[in-house]
Amino acid sequence: MTALLELQDVNKDYRVGGFLDRSTLHAVKHVSFTLDAEKPEIFTVVGESGSGKTTTARMILGNEVPTSGTLRFMGKDIAQIRTRQERLEFMARVQPIFQNPFEAFNPLTTLDYYLFSTAKRFLGLKDKVAVDAATDKALQHVGLSLAEVRGRYSHELSGGQLQRIAVARALIPGPKLIVADEPVSMVDASLRMSIVNLFRELRDTLGVSIIYITHDLSTAYYISDRVIIMHKGDVVEAGRAEEVLGNPSHEYSRALRSAVLPPDPVVASAIIREKLRAV
Amino acid sequence: MLAAVENKSASVEAKPVLRVEGLKAYYQMNYFGVRREVRAVDDVSLTIKRNEIYGIAGESSSGKSSLIKTIAGAITPPLRVVEGSVKFDFGGKELDVYAQRPAMKAARWKHLSYVMQGSMNVLNPVRKVKHAFHDFAFKHMGLSEGEFRARVESHLQRIGLDPRVLESYPHQLSGGMRQRLTIGLATVCEPEFIIADEPTTALDVLVQQDVLALIKGVQQRMGSSIIFVTHDMTVHAAIADRIGIVYAGRLVEEGPTLDVFQRPQHPYTAHLIASLPRIGDTRKRVALGGKPPNLADPPSGCRFHPRCPLAVDKCKSENPALLPRNSGRVACWRAGEVEAA
After folding, report:
1. What is the ipTM of this complex?
2. Where are the alpha helices (DSSP H) in A43-183?
3. What is the structure's pLDDT at B226?
4. Domains in chain A, start-ordered, CATH in brackets?
5. What fold, for B2-111+191-330?
């Protein structure tokens, strides 16, 4: 097995406080996992706010340097990237998708600008026809076309469509890994499934591995192959999605699991009545 | 368990506390002579009974927030009420939100209160929490300073907050505590009617159930009515007695929660419920195709027809009325034909 991404005992500390009350915040503690290069998968990181899941994502993207431990992407230490050429190569292989599509795109810039500049920068394309073709191809993968997107601004499209465009932009360089940080939390419940289904399709048709970061256990169960659950920087449970989410063993994962309300009025209202009685 | 749910809906008293009739509220803009009209609330009629929790569901930009703001009388231009009325019944006295402005002002917070979305935006970050209570509620309660303080403290205790939070600043409290505070703020005057806009959306999963139980508990103790908006169907499943589904500014289906979930009549509702992911089930969910309608230029006829799997020619030209069906109401030419999900 060759590793696509390998995290080895990764830690990240932040210094917080002023001169007199300085303390260390351990945002990520001893995180290790490996993604297989031959077998694309959807790897989910679950945790509530403050669990260190976003810090982990930022380290994988190379935006944050770990305090100790190593992150290797295709055998190469991410922290050792020095030259512009190396960084471009790395960025072409690892692409991000952000939480809020309305904030990710500047409202005064047309959306095609993001797509065209990604194509020019990473694919080195110069002439307009080639850029258009590369952009259109990526948009086709997410069920859109350049004709629909050209010249449009972010306020003209729905959150679901914008998030699709964000995925299309990430696909242009032909990445091996997409890091999606809470990609559906700002998207409507009814559009969530279209984004989540898209990830499945990318894994199956393009062979892209996806690190899906979320606090929503029901979509995590729906698409993930493997899951880790983070709590205050620690990985408290890791394994196959059905086992970890269907039958959690750690105390915290069990609490998280039972906090999910089922979309069923009989069961859900019974849970709330039970809570009421307990108070 | 089934019997318990039915009992709950049967015990709800019949007299409506809120009557909305033929309400139309449009965003009317006029820039440089170009008129634009966005029909955010289009001909909505609904009633809410005493002691009932009514949930409004729908996708973003479907006009559900505009509807709830219009009901609260909290709208500012360019959103204007074009037609219809919103009438409350507080203790046998009828109150028309848009005809009796001064009476409405007096009723606010005492009879009608509002739980806002994003609790951080409600509490002033540079003032202690106690000032928020004073600003919102003091003048409506007619108590002396000391009595008011005692009342607030006992109220906070009842909803599970230490009265010491009154002396803290909002940033010193967790998200769950802040949301509890805003609920405390909205219920301290024991109003008959509470309006809540996405009460749990900004919360961590772990505290969501507690906040929902708190809302339900406060409602049961005071016997008040609640209308709330969220796109999260699991929240509706947990606390709503009845659900109204809004699509493109119109109410397309309404009924008791259990019936809506088990026997959806409108194809849009059926889709909403079928697409919910459940733990323990990885069958592929189909997302709704097409894009949400533009309310400045909505589709003709039934507004759902471009995305509807059951659409026929009639749907494209004629708008279906919201008619009684089974235990609720539905606006669809092919109501009930959708397969139960």
Report:
1. 0.77
2. 53-60, 84-93, 101-104, 111-123, 128-141, 146-149, 159-171
3. 93
4. 3-278 (3.40.50.300)
5. Rossmann fold (3.40.50)
